[in-house]
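Shipment paperwork, digital attachment
Item: protein structure file
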Amino acid sequence: MDTGASPAPLLQPTSVLFSCTHNSIRSPMAEVIAKSLFGQKIFVDSAGVRATEIDGFTVEVLDEIGLDASDHLSKNFDELTDTSFDLIIALSPEARAKAEEITRTTACEVEYWLTLDPSIAEGNREMRLNAYRQVRDDLYQHIKSRFATNPAPLV
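Attachment content:
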């Protein structure tokens, strides 16, 4: 039965973990973008189910909008120094499964934002970069919308 009431607003977390499969593309993008938007207002980190090195295209497309991910050190869930998050945002099916597994006994919420893995894009360099740019821009808009504050505009 529809009561006509508006849905309850999402509570704003004070600590967020973005997670994906390798912590090399999607979750580092989200981490860097969120940190640029919210500074110290929200603690932000990222992790992967497995950790590999930051992807060069990730660094490049973030640099295009004035964000630096060149010093990002990829890590997996076991390597997190702080595990007391209010919210884990999973960006891949594997990360969703891992997040749900580790939060079964905690008060941490899990959200799933299915996000394209741009590393599977084919074509020339520019076509592949465009796939990364699309993921970057989608994450930027989704983060801005989800946390509904007054972030700086996308450059």
